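Work Package 4 report. The design task specified in the project plan requires that, given a folded chain encoded as structure tokens, an amino acid be chosen for each position. We show below one input record used in the internal validation round.
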């Protein structure tokens, strides 16, 4: 598993590449969250223009004041280890159990010094063989679900102490961004704090034609992992999103899962992502979304409902500009 958890980029490769290690967590009770991302971006056939990107977002659902920052650094001043948990972007970095850094944006600076721990095994959103296959071109996994964070963030001159905030450490990479997706994650529901959800609905564009949506889902709940990630399962599943609501449903002979993830416009920030083949995408990013899952156990017909009011991650990746959000960075 470790080769998938470390960097996949081969220095100097001519094929375009993006790769991110990101961390996110929520306050145990209040609608507050952070998202920190260490990224490598290399344009297709132009490895000499590769850069490291350092991102940070602070989301405050109480005041409505969010802060987003980004810093770009030549790749010569960065390192992304291929065999260990070690990333450096100038003077910022991540190694197993610790992350630190600082960046600025129009909303003000964010500085962080954090440690994290956890015992959950990695979670794969794709079948294992897909991570070494040519398709899909974009891969993602959760390196550490239910990570517990401690430390501090400085946000626009104000210090926020982080004590037992729960979230995750994540890794994604590819030769191009998925053409359109909604992605969601819950690291502990309000009524099931040890349960973990990872889900996406993605569509690809083949020339002028869009594929049907694929909706892979993995739920860890009640001591079991329900991995609904096979090709046929993801095509049979339902997934439909709009600004800013998403509904999905999937299942197998053992369990049926229906869910909604939603958040008000005011709980999102819009970010601009470079795409290795060229062009840009927009990531509409919230970590303060509401999620409700209804589980139906097929053998008994028994149902359960899992909920969180403001602890769900919800991201939409799109080319569209009619979302009504100011692009922060």
């Amino acid at each position: 598993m470790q080769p998938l958890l470390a960097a996949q980029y081969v220095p100097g490769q001519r094929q375009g590449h993006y790769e991110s290690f990101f961390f996110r967590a929520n306050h145990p009770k209040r609608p507050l969250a952070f998202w920190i991302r260490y990224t490598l971006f290399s344009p297709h056939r132009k490895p000499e223009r590769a850069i490291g990107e350092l991102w940070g977002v602070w989301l405050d659902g109480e005041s409505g004041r969010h802060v987003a920052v980004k810093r770009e650094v030549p790749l010569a001043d960065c390192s992304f280890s291929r065999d260990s948990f070690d990333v450096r972007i100038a003077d910022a970095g991540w190694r197993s159990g610790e992350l630190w850094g600082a960046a600025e944006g129009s909303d003000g600076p964010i500085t962080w010094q954090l440690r994290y721990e956890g015992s959950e095994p990695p979670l794969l959103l794709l079948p294992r063989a897909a991570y070494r296959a040519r398709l899909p071109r974009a891969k993602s996994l959760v390196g550490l679900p239910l990570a517990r964070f401690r430390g501090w963030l400085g946000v626009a001159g104000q210090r926020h102490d982080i004590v037992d905030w729960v979230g995750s450490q994540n890794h994604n990479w590819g030769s191009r961004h998925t053409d359109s997706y909604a992605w969601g994650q819950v690291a502990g529901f309000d009524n099931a704090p040890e349960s973990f959800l990872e889900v996406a609905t993605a569509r690809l564009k083949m020339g002028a034609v869009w594929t049907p949506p694929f909706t892979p889902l993995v739920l860890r709940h009640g001591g079991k992992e329900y991995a609904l990630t096979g090709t046929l399962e993801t095509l049979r599943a339902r997934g439909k999103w709009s600004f800013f609501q998403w509904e999905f449903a999937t299942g197998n002979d053992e369990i049926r899962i229906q869910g909604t993830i939603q958040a008000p416009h005011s709980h999102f920030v819009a970010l601009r992502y470079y795409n290795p083949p060229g062009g840009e995408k927009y990531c509409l990013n919230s970590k303060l979304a509401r999620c409700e899952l209804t589980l139906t156990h097929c053998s008994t017909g028994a149902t359960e409902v899992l909920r969180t009011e403001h602890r769900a991650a919800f991201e939409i990746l799109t080319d569209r500009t009619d979302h009504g959000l100011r692009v922060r960075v």
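Residues 187 and 193 are 8 Å apart (CA to CA). Validation will be extended to a larger panel in the next phase.
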